[in-house]
């Protein structure tokens, strides 16, 4: 083999898996909450991650190829969850295209299997926690607890509106 062939071979192999080399297999996801100091528990949809958590504001390195759920909780506030999904982005797509154009089929396969061409979105994951006992939460609890009474009160109010409307119509007719 001549030097040109070896150089070309070396260049081809160095470009294999461009995204895996330049971007890595993990993405740093930032977690924010209002108010701060909420616990974030990460659940990976494959069940392989195990227990991972942090307190906002914080960041965690997560696999670029897996979908996650981030569960936010704080005492005195309603819990909330956010879905984090892998999505091909410009930088990862460019590296993948470079693999294909330069003959790096092996590199393209590696980038595809590691998820290196993906970013996890949204990033940052930012949520607003609502205090427990807010009016909308109380209405939901009361409606479930006292459904029959609420329906009866609504029917009685509708009857009263009809009665008042008839009386007003009768009074208008008597004055004419």
Detailed description of the structure:
- This protein is an alpha+beta fold and 176 residues long.
- The chain has two domains: 3-128, no CATH class; 146-175.
- The protein has helices spanning 3-15, 18-23, 90-101, 105-114, 135-145, 147-175, and strands at residues 26-34, 39-44, 52-55, 58-63, 68-73, 80-88, 118-121, 125-128.
- Strands 3-2-5-6-7 form a five-stranded antiparallel β-sheet. It has a three-stranded mixed β-sheet with strand order 4-1-8, with no helix packed on it.
- A hairpin with a 7-residue loop joins strand 2 and strand 3.
- Helix 3 (90-101) packs antiparallel against helix 4.
- The N and C termini lie far apart (113 Å).
- Mean pLDDT is 74; it is low at 8-17 and 139-145.
CA(first)-CA(last) distance: 113 Å
List the quaternary state of the chains: single chain
Global morphology: elongated
Q: Any idea how many domains?
A: 2
């Amino acid at each position: 083999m001549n030097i040109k062939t070896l150089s070309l071979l070396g260049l081809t192999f160095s470009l294999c898996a461009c995204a895996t080399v330049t971007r890595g297999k993990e993405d740093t996801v930032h977690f924010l909450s209002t108010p701060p100091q909420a616990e974030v528990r990460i659940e990976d949809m494959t069940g392989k991650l195990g227990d991972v958590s942090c307190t906002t504001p914080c960041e965690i390195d997560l696999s670029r190829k897996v979908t996650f759920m981030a569960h936010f909780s704080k005492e005195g506030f309603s819990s909330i969850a956010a879905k984090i999904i892998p999505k091909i982005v410009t930088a990862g797509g460019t590296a993948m295209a470079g693999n294909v154009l330069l003959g790096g089929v092996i590199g393209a396969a590696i980038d595809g299997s590691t998820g290196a061409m993906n970013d996890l979105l949204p990033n940052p994951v930012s949520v607003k926690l609502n205090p427990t006992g807010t009016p909308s939460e109380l209405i939901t609890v009361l409606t479930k607890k006292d459904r029959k009474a609420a329906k009866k009160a609504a029917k009685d109010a509708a009857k009263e509106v009809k009665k008042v409307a008839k009386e007003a119509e009768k009074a208008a007719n008597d004055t004419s």
